[in-house]
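Let's study today's protein:

:::
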Amino acid sequence: MAGRWLTFDCFGTLIDWRHGIRTTGELLFPGHGQQFLDAYIGIEAEVETEGSFRRYRAILTETTRRAAKQLEVDLKPDDATALVSTIPYWPPFGDVGPPLSELRKEGWKFALLTNCDRDIIALTQRRLPVPFDAVVTACFSRRSAPQPMSGSTSRRATSPTSDQPVSWASRGSG
């Protein structure tokens, strides 16, 4: 079993990003956390596809600005980066610890695929119930989302041979 890899999308699979964004929205705009989350979800993909590659902190900040504008709520300029600041505190889903621990005991290696910046994901990893052997960020692949990185990019990052399969784990749309 040594040398087998599982790759995971971090946010929505391991980390509850909806909870994190909703809670941050509630801190910024009391009584509007759910509306902020809904607006954010509707805007983020559009921001990600505009122009050339941007670091995820810039996407978070711009999406926060646009969501606040859409909701017609007051966003103080220094609060536009609130999601960047709170990501390290977003909780993992409660059901990820036992299965990951069991897979680790069976010899699996784990890699995270994320659109998040390396410094932000490093802080997020402290909340995960098991250590990860590799991290592939959007900065590595110059793509805004982890799904396109699941093949050749993850193989380059983990260097398995052809007899060492790379598998992808995701909860779907998060």
User: Anything to note?
Assistant: The first strand starts at residue 5 and ends at 9. The first helix runs from residue 17 to 28. Strands lie at 5-9, 109-114, 134-137, 166-169.
